[in-house]
Amino acid sequence: MFYGDFQAIKEVTIAVPARRITALIGPSGCGKSSFLRCLNRMNDVIEGARVEGDVLLDGRNIYDSRTDVVELRKRVGMVFQRPNPFPVSIYANVAYGPRLHGIPDRSRLDAIVEKSLRAAALWDEVKDKLRQTATELSGGQQQRLCIARVLAVEPEVVLMDEPCSALDPTATFRIEELMTELMADYTIIIVTHNMYQASRVSQFTGFFLLGELIEYDHTPKIFENPQDQRTDDYVRGRFG
Amino acid sequence: MMLFSAQRTEKLAFAALWASAAIVVLPVLGIIAVMLYRGASGLSWGLLFGAREGLLPAIVGTVLLVSLTALIAAPLGVAAAVYLNEYARAGPLVRLIRLAIVNLAGVPSVVYGLFGLALFVTLFHFGRSLLAGSCTLALLVLPLIISTSEEALRQVPQGLRHASLGLGASQWQTVRRVVLPNALPGIITGLILSISRAAGETAPILFTAAFYSLTSPLPKSVFDPILVLPYQLFVMATEVPNVPESTKWATALVLVVVVLGINLFAIVLRARLRGSRRW
Ligand SMILES: Nc1ncnc2c1ncn2[C@@H]1O[C@H](COP(=O)(O)OP(=O)(O)OP(=O)(O)O)[C@@H](O)[C@H]1O
Ligand SMILES: [Mg+2]
Q: Does the pLDDT of residue B145 top 70, yes or no?
């Protein structure tokens, strides 16, 4: 995975299990976000970005020329590192995806919007002001709105890029609960800087360093008995 | 000694900025005042609606010309800007197109007039007509529309595009549902600027659309020539003898009022679009 001539990710091979939570950790700038974007081909829309290699989803290579990218992104949803709600009403934000994919019917939309907002632990705060502009919400609320917006499309895989970095502990806790609930139906990959979060919610953890996947294993193993010295240093906080 | 304390520089900056604003606004107010002063006495029912020498046909002609120009140039210009900003990958071709647009914006308007004469009037057999004039004016304002629209599109945060694409929207859905609605106020501002420029131009329509007549008929189709205010004023001021000074000023006043009226209409339109941006 390159930006121009700069190679941001080097030969990563990883098998992400379905219906589990996989955490990706690593110092800032090591390529976690870039790697996540490879998984739903969001790198396609970044000027100068280029990907080599294969990503298999249900045995099919998503970088195959026959892949329908739009369909792929419906199946693999993404919550971005920076909250990016549309400057329209809260309702319209959540309804955006379903409307896109052909659900015009009001009552079904209402139901989807409520379900998604509940799932993202935002419903109680916004249920009386669904017509309010989403950009007036606080940063943490905006991030949960973005999560709700992705859930409304009912993807199979949810990629989350530091979804909790702007949230208070209560909201973070709700999101973690949410992830655990979602695990039954969804495959979740989460990037986080919070070691406790990784160890609490995930079953598998991958440690990235300077564009390389240093170690990938069951979460308890990574945190208690890592094979690589660098992983050990990082999870024990002995790393820059 | 604190000669330039923060507070003092603040005051100085404020005074300087205020003065610049005043210097910009004063001439405009001055022009309007002079026109009112010298033209008010010439304004009369006869001047506006009189069967002979009435300005009404020219007012109608100007409005028709500008409307048709907007109808031709706006979709073309916005579409081109969307292509350049949303679809085209950076490369030599796109650079060449941008260079061409920038240079076209600097071509004197009389050149457009001659080009319009050769292309629309003669080659396409539109004759000297409303249609030929509108096409020529459309060419004139296209570069302006494209660059202001592109600027408006660039103002739309990248994150919104990514959010939409990430939810499984196609490129076109993203453009239509997210990018265009967010860029619309800026695009329309650019359209207003461009169109009001078109409304006051004389040179491009001189050979392509305008004629001067005392019997002042209205056009029956887009292939008829039209009376337009700037040309009316031009002929009145340079070729017709014995036109009272106050009549000329009054005509100028009417021209300015019509241009302002067109702008006002566009501004109201923009405000309403902004209000209804709840998709
Ligand atoms: N659009 C881009 N163009 C060029 N280089 C980029 C771009 N995005 C990221 N990079 C580079 O790729 C490398 C990895 O960036 P990335 O955003 O994936 O890191 P990250 O692990 O997500 O960091 P953080 O934890 O701070 O979010 C960095 O060196 C960064 O400078
Ligand atoms: Mg990142």
A: yes
Compute, in angstroms, the gap from residue B59 CA to the centroid of ligand 1: 59
Q: Does residue B78 surpass a pLDDT of 90?
A: yes
Residue whose Cα lies nearest atom 16 of ligand 1: it is A31
Tell me if A101 and B162 make a contact (CB, 8 A cut-off): no
Give the tens place of pLDDT for each residue, A120-133.
888 988 989 999 99
Residue A27 Cα: closest atom of ligand 1: 25
* Alpha-carbon span B236 to A237, nearest angstrom: 85
| CATH code: domain of residue B205 | 1.10.3720.10
| Domains, chain A, with CATH or none | 2-85+155-235 (3.40.50.300)
Beta-carbon-side half-sphere exposure of residue A20 (alpha carbons within 13 Å): 14
Tokens describing residue B48: 């506006």
On the question of pLDDT at B66 being above 50, the answer is yes
Number of domains comprising chain B: 1
pLDDT in tens, B183-222: 988 898 888 888 888 887 888 888 888 777 766 577 778 8
Whether the CA torsion B94, B99, B101, B102 is positive or negative: it is positive
- Domain membership of residue B83 (yes or no) is yes
Amino acid in position B84: L
Other C-beta atoms closer than 10 Å to the C-beta of B10 total 10
Pocket lining: A220 vs ligand 1, CB cutoff 6 Å: no
Using an 8 Å CB-CB cutoff, list chain B residues near A151: none
Q: Which one of B157, B165, B177 has the shortest CB-CB distance to A45?
A: B165
